[in-house]
Specification:
Length: about 280
Amino acid sequence: MAITRIHHLNCGTMCPAAAPLINGPGRSFRERGTMVCHCLLIETTSSGLILVDTGFGTDDCTHPQRFHRAFRVVASPRFDVAETALSQITELGYAAADVRHLVVTHLDLDHAGGLGDFPHADVHLHAVEKRAALTAPTLAERGRYIQAQWSHGPSWRTYEDAGDDWFGFEAVRQLDGVAEQLALIPLFGHTRGHCGVAVQHEDGWLLHAGDAYFHHDELIAANRCPPGLRLFQELVQMNRRKRIANANRLRELSRHHAGDVTIFSAHDPAELHRFTQ
């Protein structure tokens, strides 16, 4: 099996207030910031289409009231059906049934909304994340996970902390029925079972780091993160020690293996632009 093409998609735009607090200096505080939902669509020769993260889904866009009011006010999502993964995949000439595998970094409401658009796909994720999302044991988790996004009863494929070493990280390899060039990389902290997703292609590795960091300058130094994003990370983290430790490890990976691994996060529009310009 081979990966034939990788598409970088924005499957949801959010426009929080005060652009410099979100995107860094150079813009007016009167402007709204921009955050994206960076997803990967992977074409393969024998595993169909693989979607890494799903952004907002069709039902999210048509029923925005499923999101709590605080999120809608603070994040100011566009909820544009044309941005959903399903809509963009259809534009490429595929059908929903062609997406056979969904690999998610975590199940936060802005990452898992598209699950219902691909009801026949297997959903691959860390076992810790599935348990946290489906049971939502704390008040914070009850706010960040939307059970309606998986009310169709997905075919879950879960994985524990076991697998091959990947540039010094633990890596869960050999995902069921998925290309051997993919791996889950545990990056806990933002949520209990948050993972990155590594994809090997002809020029090296891509690492979708999910919400392990939020701004590209964080790969240079932790204090380079705009203050709004820094505050948000502190407010929503489930384990501060693990989150900071994994952000430091990603920084070291970027410094020492830049020629082998290209790292990007889920919500940085500058990183997405680098792949789509």
